[in-house]
Amino acid sequence: MAQAESRAIEEQWQAWIEQQRELLNQPASADQPASAFKMGEELLSIWRGAWTSASSAQTGAAKGLSDLFAKLPPIGLAREQVAVWQELASIQAECQQLEQELREVLAGVQRKALDLLDEQVRQRRERNEPVATYRELYDLWVDCAEQVFAKVAHSDAYSKLQGELGNATIRLKARQQKVIEYALKQFDLPTRSELNSVHLQLRQLKQKVAALEQRTASATPAAAERPAASARPAKPAASTKPAARAARKSAVKKSPRKSR
Amino acid sequence: MSELQFDQQRFAREVEEFTQRMTRGFGALAQIGDVEIGTAPKDAVYSEDKLVLYRYRQPDDVPAKSRVRIPLLICYALVNRPWMMDLQPDRSLIRSLLRRGVDVYLIDWGYPDGADRYLTLDDYVSGYLARCADFISESTGHERINLLGVCQGGTLSLCYAALQPQRLKNLITMVTPVDFRTPQNLLTKWTEHVDLDALLATTGNLPGDMLNMLFLSLQPFRLNSQKYVGLMDLADNRQALENFLRMEKWIFDSPDQPGEMFRQFMIWLVKENRLVRGELELGGRRVSLKNVDMPLLNIYAMQDHLVPPSASVPLQQLVGSRDYSTYASPGGHIGIYVSSSAQREVPERIANWLRARDR
Questions:
Q1: Nearest CA to CA, how far is B143 from chain A (Å)?
Q2: Do the bridges between strand B72-75 and strand B104-108 make them parallel or antiparallel, or are there none, so unpaired?
């Protein structure tokens, strides 16, 4: 091994790690990811994906409207709709602000992970177990990053920030649903709210049928002869459960389906 | 100056090797195609709404004297599909139990959809789970059955055992959270400030993808990056690649959580820790763990980052069982089913424990 070459690599590594530090020390912005590792961006995209999957289509329109109407009180025939769009724009701005805060926290994780990595590399050298391959270095970096992240993840500040971002995104999604439902109603198309109402009514009807079946079943003399059922405690009158016998009717015992 | 000592030629070689491995790996992955999980022979014996109850076929070569007389019902969580219990022929808790003479039933909760968003915790505990137990009782003639609850399914099983203790002969809980408020419970901490009422009002059911993302973000560097870099180490081992793909298939096949059930679970059990505090009520009845008086085996994983041991261990102090056993398995939340050491230990312990209490 040529010592000069080895030194050159070491210097390149040192320069790279310094470059990463500098990048991480710059304030992050939405347009310019803070780190070449991009883990912060990946985490953020996880959040975005989780909470705002439906929001991307609305983003452009909401941004334009927020600029135009943000400071005007809604009036006139379209007052209600304008108010909804204003709320939407305001919550979107809140989400962006919180995303930015989360991005900075995650950039901090990477910064500290690099510091820890440097320290670990030094310790291994001192123990005469130097990092010899890039793969080893990568694995060590992952260990360091997880270690730093675990500390941050367990902090109250992080869980509070996550909660705030999650709640803001939920509010955003709720407003988006409102806008979509309004549009659907204009075309006399079914909405989620209507479907929910139907599901709820269906559930209440099932409960009533189950209660009636249970009452009928317990009134028949045969019911008293079933040892297993009689050993069970009485179910409350408002029980949501179908009678055991009714449930058994749906059993596929008569024609069992074979599965592999 | 950095402490690193790199040999440029060695580095070039490393990159070259990795590139070659990656090329071979992609080729091998493309050849494997799809993989199957949950393939142990079984029959659907009962169904209701989206739930299917399976009974597994016992091998013919199990000696009669080794058989466990009382049937065992496995109540899996609603998070992910139950096929972790039978991931592949050589990593299957179910097959291992069958070989040891256990008569195994399994609840498959199916994929809840919008029609299930108003189902409650009680619908699952006193409804579906209770009716599956009733069905097994009546079809096998055993008034009391054995129940094994896994993770969230273990918590549901504990609720059922507390409400209907006379229906169970023995209870086994595996990686089951009971005390959700210990400092190690990261998921509890993360949901502390989330408005769950608003969340579920907006999403209806909780999307399975959202849960997956939450789980991945617990160890983001390891689970989103290192795991897939490591995959290339398996490039020349088709069997290991297939194992990897089976696990991926299981992990990302995530049903949605029924909205109201999940809301109650998160608020009552996780946020308010009602099970531990003895304040949980289901269907108008108080769920007192002191009523859980049947023999109980609590199995937890020592390196579990989803259900930390501190969430499972307190169970002993809370239940009324005088015959209480614990097994702390090395490994994590999933390793307890698939690691080679767990494959050797866990089914053997369960079968022996049940056999000793089969009278």
A1: 6
A2: parallel
Task: Give me B217's structure tokens.
Answer: 């973000």
- CA B14/CA B268 separation, integer angstroms: 53
- Which of B202, B212, B254, B281 to mutate to probe the A interface, most A CBs <10 Å? B202
pTM: 0.81
CB A232 within 8 A of CB A211: no
Task: Determine, for residues A167 and B218 on separate chains, whether the beta-carbon distance falls below 8 Å.
Answer: no
* Start-to-end CA span in chain A (Å): 59
Identify the pLDDT of residue A241. 43
User: Is beta strand B285-286 parallel, antiparallel or unpaired with respect to B168-174?
Assistant: unpaired
Pairing verdict, β B168-174 and B296-301? parallel
pLDDT band (50, 70, 90) for residue B103: very high
Alpha helices in B127-237 (DSSP H): 130-140, 152-163, 186-191, 196-203, 208-216, 220-221, 227-231
Instruction: Identify from A169, A253, A254, A255 which residue to disrupt to test chain B contact, counting B C-beta atoms within 10 A and taking the largest count.
Output: A253
Residues paired with residue B300 on neighbouring β-strands, in sequence order: B328
Instruction: For residue A241, give Cα distances in angstroms to A207, B48, B98, B127, B146.
Output: 7, 12, 32, 5, 22
Question: What mean pLDDT comes out for the span A95-103?
Answer: 94
Which candidate, B345, B272, B271, B260, places its Cα nearest to that of B302? Answer: B345
Burial of B139 (0-12, 13-18, 19+ CB in 10 A): middle
| pLDDT tens digits, one per residue of A5-30 | 555 555 666 666 666 666 666 655 54
A49 neighbourhood in chain B, CB within 8 Å: 209, 213
Q: What interface predicted TM-score (ipTM) does this complex get? A: 0.85
Minimal CA–CA distance to B71: which of B31, B38, B36, B104?
B104
Long-range pairs for B31-37 at CB < 8 Å and ≥24 separation? Answer: B32/B238, B32/B241, B32/B242, B32/B245, B35/B242, B35/B245, B35/B246, B35/B249, B36/B246, B37/B83, B37/B86, B37/B87, B37/B88, B37/B246, B37/B249, B37/B250
Bridge-based pairing of strands B281-282 and B168-174 is unpaired
* Gyration radius of chain B over CA positions: 22
